[in-house]
Write a structure and sequence with these properties.
Chain lengths: 359, 336
């Protein structure tokens, strides 16, 4: 009798342990989407070592990826969109503070050398945004998207200011469509012209993005891609002869495409990869590969991917020189036999709206 | 006889191994059930408090019929849900519905149709008088919102679900964010700064940059709530709301029963629905078989379905005037 009672008393902890075990076991059955949280790049090891040095952003923090490992650089804050000077000795990056954002010049270690713009104000309406900085090939000026003038809503226009000058010397380059969000992603060209992405609204009030060329400040802007292609996030190859871009074709997925560029016109596009959520392509220093962001698995955090380009050259712009705004231009596009993309990072959550700066 | 008594007692006091095994299994089953019950306790509480809300739809004045509870569609049959999103920030005694989306779900074919109702749509309210449709919830809660939509759009609504802005933020964060294509820069200098306390009528600046990206709850809310710089105004916002709703649904398709306590805890106080757990299960089934090709999205854009107006007839307010012949043709075709 006593033994039975002792056995029963001893069995109570077993029951408690089993009940707790069931509780804990159920917790392990949660889907990865709920459990998975991104890691800091510095505690991860890239699966693939990229050549050169790259700067990327995660949750407002700047990271340098070099020789297969990440290092955090820069002071705290909400940083984004780093870009390199042509001599690869400095960076210009965007810092968001409150209701505005500014451009800062910094060294490659992330130490701020100079604040280039001052867009904050105690009065909300007088605050401004500055995004998408890009240094001209001669290193003399920085082009960026700036929400001024605020005449008809808030829309970004492309502006240019001397890198060693002051903001009052800035000059507006483009005239965006109002209430579209405006013009973004400027690429200053060696010729003195400009590639950029313009947003427009068609007669059925659908918003489109197109890559435009403009030869001078406030000159006539020419579309280089058809409206229906919805191309954006253009980036120029190191030798200036090819453009990589993301095109959605009105869908909720995209294709990553490249086209040759002769200084004012694009050739027929080649689709490298299709059907994914591709963002912010960047050319490798040798121009033989692209890096871009794409989500990994179900959790959806954006990772860095590397894509070697097909050996065959892209068709010359002379074949399809006239910038076409018709859907028939799609017929000219080809799907290139591209090597499979390689996932570089794992478990991080890189900012997909901050293109990598790579040299 | 005297010699058999103690022996029988000994046998009786010694448990048979089978009985011990059965008793042990029973105790383990009991403790395991208790562990599972503790794990799913928040779901049970929410099941009682937040799901299966009874809504009595008021009768039409012209019909003069008695108030009736919402009749539910048969299990497995297509059903229509009215999704209501509110700025539950305390500006009004009852919140206005910033978002009203009619969703028809066909569990058999896994087809989903979504129709966004502009919040400024000028309609007769079920509670009497005419006003912007977002006031229906303010005046009479879910029942008035449902009755107003049913009578004006000539549809039958089986269920409703209401979520507050903070609930949406928390849900998206709990899901680890959503992947969205921002088609153009969404810039707004008059975005309401009412989520984190302070002055309820204050405003702030936001900027959502274009491209595919992973949005957390706060930024996803900014994306779906901004409207001041969109040339399509509230209609542009409606399209963005449908887009994020689909992104949430895509994420939800990966959830399983073990995730329910976390989700329920996340939505605590920010979510109510008339749906019972069986209907929620049915919805999860559709989410699992999610295919964008099976989703039809409808926004009542100007000028086909609606037009802008302002004047004395609308109390001087800027409103959206419905073109009922076009709208009803759409609802007849998509919400039979």
């Amino acid at each position: 009798m006593i033994l039975r009672r002792i056995a029963a008393i001893l069995f109570v902890p077993v029951m408690l342990a089993f009940g707790s075990g069931v509780y804990l076991y159920l917790g392990t059955l949660k889907s990865k989407v709920v459990q998975e949280r991104p890691q800091l790049p510095t505690v991860t090891k890239p699966k693939f070592v990229l050549p050169g040095t790259m700067f990327v952003v995660q949750e407002g923090r700047l990271f340098k990826l070099e020789a297969g490992s990440f290092t955090e650089i820069g002071p705290g804050g909400e940083w984004s969109q780093p870009t390199l000077t042509p001599d690869h000795t400095k960076l210009v990056a965007v810092l968001r503070t409150g209701f505005s954002s500014d451009l800062y010049l910094m060294d490659l270690g992330g130490h701020v050398l100079k604040r280039l713009t001052k867009n904050d104000s105690r009065y909300i309406d007088y605050n401004h945004w500055a995004f998408y900085p890009r240094i001209s090939p001669d290193g003399a000026s920085v082009m960026y998207s700036f929400d001024s003038p605020k005449v008809n809503g808030v829309d970004l226009a492309v502006w240019s200011m001397p890198l060693n000058g002051a903001q009052w010397q800035a000059r507006r380059w483009t005239d965006p469509y109002s209430h579209t969000g405006g013009d973004v992603s400027p690429i200053p060209l060696a010729s003195g012209g400009l590639l950029f992405v313009r947003h427009s609204i068609d007669s059925s009030t659908v918003v489109h993005s197109q890559i435009y060329f403009q030869s001078r400040a406030l000159g006539v802007a020419t579309p280089l891609t058809p409206e229906a292609d919805d191309c954006s996030q253009a980036t120029l190859s190191p030798d200036g002869t090819q453009v990589a871009m993301v095109c959605t074709h009105g869908k909720q997925s995209a294709s990553l495409e490249i086209a040759s560029f002769n200084g004012s016109a694009l050739g027929a596009p080649q689709v490298l990869v299709d059907g994914g959520l591709y963002a912010s392509p960047a050319w490798s220093p040798d121009g033989k590969a692209l890096a871009y962001f794409g989500p990994q698995g179900l959790a959806g955090h954006f990772q860095l991917w590397w894509l070697p380009l097909p050996v065959a050259a892209t068709p010359s712009p002379s074949i399809a020189a006239a910038p076409s705004t018709s859907a028939s231009a799609r017929a000219a596009s080809t799907v290139a036999p591209t090597p499979a993309p390689v996932q570089v990072t794992e478990g991080v959550d890189l900012s997909a709206t901050s293109p990598p700066a790579w040299f | 006889m005297t010699g058999q008594g103690p022996a029988r007692r000994r046998r009786a006091s010694r448990l048979h191994p089978v009985r011990i095994a059965v008793l042990t299994l029973f105790c383990l089953l009991l403790s395991g059930t208790a562990g599972a019950a503790a794990y799913f306790f928040p779901v049970v509480v929410a099941g009682v408090g937040q799901t299966g809300q009874t809504v009595v739809v008021p009768p039409s004045r012209s019909q003069g019929t008695a108030s009736t509870p919402m009749p539910s569609a048969a299990p497995g049959a297509p059903f229509t849900v009215l999704l209501l999103g509110s700025d539950d920030d305390g500006k009004n005694k009852s919140p206005l519905t910033q978002s009203m989306i009619l969703v028809r779900v066909d569990p058999a074919s896994k087809h989903v149709t979504m129709l966004s109702i502009p919040r400024d749509l000028w309609v007769p309210l079920s509670t009497g008088g005419s006003a912007k449709i977002d006031a229906a919830y303010d005046y009479g809660g879910a029942a008035a919102a449902i009755a107003t939509v049913e009578r004006n759009f000539h549809v039958h609504i089986d269920e409703y679900a209401w979520v507050g802005l903070k609930g949406l933020i928390k849900l998206i964060d709990r899901l680890g964010g959503v992947d969205v294509l921002v088609s153009n820069p969404v810039l707004d200098d008059e975005y309401p700064n009412d989520i984190n306390g302070g002055f309820l009528y204050g405003y702030m600046r936001i900027a959502a940059l274009p491209g595919f990206q992973h949005l957390d709850g706060t930024h996803a809310l900014q994306y779906v709530r901004s409207r001041h710089n969109d040339i399509n105004g509230d209609f542009g916002r409606s399209a963005r709301q449908q887009q994020v709703l689909l992104a949430i649904k895509a994420k939800a398709s990966t959830l399983n029963a073990a995730d329910l306590p976390d989700i329920v805890e996340t939505l605590k106080g920010n979510f109510t629905t008339s749906m019972g757990l069986d209907r929620v299960r049915s919805l999860l089934g559709v989410a699992t078989a999610f295919d964008l090709a099976n989703v039809k999205q409808i926004v009542l854009f100007v000028p086909t379905y609606t037009s802008y107006d302002r004047g004395a007839a609308y109390g001087g307010q800027s409103v959206v005037v419905p073109h009922w012949s076009q709208i009803l043709a759409v609802t007849r075709a998509n919400f039979p």
